[in-house]
């Protein structure tokens, strides 16, 4: 079925990302920087355009690093001995990463420098953001952390199994997000039922163990609670 083929395609793509994170030191640095920038953006009242620029800059750096890694692997396969042209190809692909990183730094300067000058301790603790911004940051951080944990512990596949259940993490975070946005017990109850069914389906299918589902639930709940408790309206 085309759905299964599509899932397999995503699985292979994320497997490539996990391999790059696990084996490439620069990718680990870029991903750490991405997490810090996304978390740091919570302290600033970014517009949608500014947030979009930050996301594009992060994506471009990671994209360039993935291409650079792929080029290096292909060259190492094709050229077992020292080759001047192979060296040039590696240098060019590395230059693409440098340009992308420079672009990210420039965008960060334009977006954050003015707001940083206006930042105060009171603003840090009292700043309020649009719900969509908080939701995006929350889900992005959870997704990145799930991928990082799977790459560290090398268990399961990107979309199936692993040290933590990404589905449980996202479902648990959604429950808290809905509660903070609506303050409705009915909405909270319905969201909790859906989250429970999601976790149960992963357990019954044998995709995750009970421990992995609990860890995923804790991960999603903690991140969502911290972000929405301190930064929501």
TrEMBL record:
It is a multi-pass membrane protein. One of its GO terms (biological process) is phospholipid biosynthetic process. The active site is at residue 65. Its main location: membrane. Mn(2+), Zn(2+), Cd(2+) and Co(2+) support activity to lesser extents. Coiled coil: none annotated. Its cofactor is Mg(2+). GO terms for molecular function: ATP binding; kinase activity; metal ion binding. Substrate binds at residue 65. Residues 160-231 form the Phosphatidic acid phosphatase type 2/haloperoxidase domain. One of its GO terms (cellular component) is plasma membrane. Keywords: ATP-binding, Cell membrane, Kinase, Lipid biosynthesis, Lipid metabolism, Magnesium, Membrane, Metal-binding, Nucleotide-binding, Phospholipid biosynthesis, Phospholipid metabolism, Transferase, Transmembrane, Transmembrane helix. It comes from the Bacteria. It is found in: Cell membrane. ATP binds at residue 72. InterPro entries: DAGK, DAGK_sf, PAP2/HPO, PAP2/HPO_sf. This is Diacylglycerol kinase (ATP). It comes from Halanaerobium saccharolyticum. The lineage of its organism: Bacteria, Bacillati, Bacillota, Clostridia, Halanaerobiales.
